[in-house]
Amino acid sequence: MSVYLDHAATTPILPEAAAAMTALLGRVGNASSLHASGREARRVVEESRERIAKALHCRPGEVVFTSGGTESDNLAIKGLYWARRSEDPRRVRILSTPIEHHAVLDPLEWLGTEGAKVELVEVDRAGRLDLDAFRAAVDADPDSVALVTVMWANNEVGTVQPLAEVVEIAHAHGIPVHTDAVQALGQLPLEFAGSGVDAMTVTGHKIGGPYGVGALVVRRELQPTALLHGGGQERDIRSGTIDPPAIAGFAVACELSVERQRELAARLVTLRDRLVEGVRREVPDAIYNGDAEDGPEHRLPGNAHLEFPGCEGDSLLMLLDARGIECSTGSACDAGIPQASHVLLAMGSSEEFARSSLRFSLGHTSTEADVDALIEAIGPVVERARNAALSSKAHGAR
């Protein structure tokens, strides 16, 4: 059996969520139909919406179901931009950070091709938004800012963003704030109403729910322009036949992940510290990335992001995978060509160091045995990767 240390990518489904889905998969009924089967499907959806709203401290009418995090991010960013710009043509600026997930960065880049002025405000060495730079960007011309989008916690290095301060600065000028909270839900204390944000992205498969379902939590006072047009099933913001079994599983996972968050976070911190200490004992020059401070205001409890000088992250990943240990690199791969992590580059890492990183992420099924297996393997794996890199350089020099 493999050792799974990639919970930030996706985490195993909770038995309770799987049971909720399984109980509904054999039933027929479109939640938009008016007959008895349709009304029963609608009941499942609306009861699930209420459970999610209670867990996230929002109103049921603020939960807009989507296919997952990417769609929710696109709906928030494009929808709010178009709606705000239509109200006032001056609103063409969008403020964000260079360390966002590509589900945010790519829509921003696309909007730039149709006239939006996207500004990515710098972050510090820990990957934390520079609030002085952000305040200056807002104050330069607040009437031209359509929206702000800043993630709750970074998916690569785990750094938690100063969202309360971001909201305070933006709301002083009536600017709406969206946050991608995909990594935060279930690992950090998370409340929609208490956070002050105007729109929040969450998804099912990161918290022990099914794939292909998520939500954009958006204040009733806001009406993002729709991306999909059709039946107008979700507040006329999101059209498409909704999936009662998946939504039921998502609701159970959301409820349980919030209920168990504090206990899980404490356990993950202990495991993460064991992992980092053990890896750095075996590889003394390994560099621990992200915020060095602990606590929910600083970094995700289940994230351990490390650089291994002299190694290629992809080589390390494959060598560990050959030993049955699954993790991820801090880099994206475009057409088979390794690229340095945009997050690490934004944090000030060199191209070489940014390509030598691995992300180990822990979740509800993680154990001490998983961590110890990594610690046992990491020394020989790093040595082999470094030897391979030296050999490659030597051949290249000939």
Walk me through this protein's architecture.
The protein has 398 residues and is an alpha/beta fold. It folds into 2 domains: 144 residues, Aspartate Aminotransferase, domain 1; 245 residues, 3-Layer(aba) Sandwich (Aspartate Aminotransferase, domain 2), CATH 3.40.640. A 7-stranded mixed sheet has the order 2-8-7-6-5-3-4, sandwiched between helices. Strands 9-10-15-12 form a 4-stranded antiparallel sheet, with helices on one face. The longest helix is centred in the C-terminal third of the chain and has 30 residues. It is globular and about 65 Å long. The two termini are 43 Å apart. About 1% of the residues have low confidence.
Summarize the structure.
The strands form four sheets. This protein has a seven-stranded mixed beta sheet, sandwiched between helices. The protein is an alpha/beta fold and 398 residues long. The radius of gyration is 22 Å and the shape is globular.
